[in-house]
User: Fold this.
Amino acid sequence: MKNINCRIGIDLGGTKIECILIDYDGNEIFRERITTPKNDYNGILNSIKNLIQKSESVTGLFGTVGIGIPGTISKQTNLVKNANSTVLIGQSLDKDLELILGRPVRLANDANCLALSEYIDGAGEEYKSLFAVILGTGVGGGLIIDGKIFSGANLISGEWGHNPLPWPNVNEFPGPDCYCGLQGCIETYLSGSGLENTFCEITGYKVSANEISEKLLNNDQDAIHAIELYENRLARGLAMIVNILDPEVIVLGGGVSNIERLYINVKNCWNKYIISTGEEVDTPILQAKHGDSSGVRGAAWLWPEI
Assistant:
């Protein structure tokens, strides 16, 4: 094998695949995004291979490969499980990639990659424990304790998106169907499509989460109503995390995390859900420093020892 002189990260998402190549100190040398082939597993493999080959061809470097996926590898079967990109479920993704790339590959949940990135040189670098949240196509979470990803005994630590929405009201029960087979999961409310569905319930119109963000900037009352419902649900969901884990900081990533008002309004309404014996909870909620590229950086950092 060639001499390793960089780190390569891949963020495999439902809509995009992103590749980044960074040096020893985390400086970005190459980055490119492409559209994820839809329902095409072999197409996904080839797309990842082509991106990695291009990154090395352009830079003249050769790197370790880390990949963030919207799921995890089962300890029992060594196959992908719990992926909202369902074409990956049941596939031997790490072994298939190692075969076509000719080198070892490290895989981790995409939210764990976000958490690792933000801990190493992002919004959470001053803290010892961090819970990172993805608010995007899906809703994931990743936990860092003392500088290391805490994956859990079954490799599902941080999967808060597939718990029921806490303290539901009568209009929220039993809740929308989730791809996992249950109803009322946090993901069905707090994903980008969850926000879109809330707006549609209010107005009868289906618009994208980005359009809702633009409407908020113009003080559209329907958009404000939708985001107020969203903020309260996010407050309840994160209050559950604080009650169970009590992390030093919570970092938000994913497309919906770009809505600035979340960071003030969620904290304004989460105290009544947190068991804080009457004291105000001062846990910071911060936006991911590296934005929607934090996950791909974390994937590259899955190989710290090069």
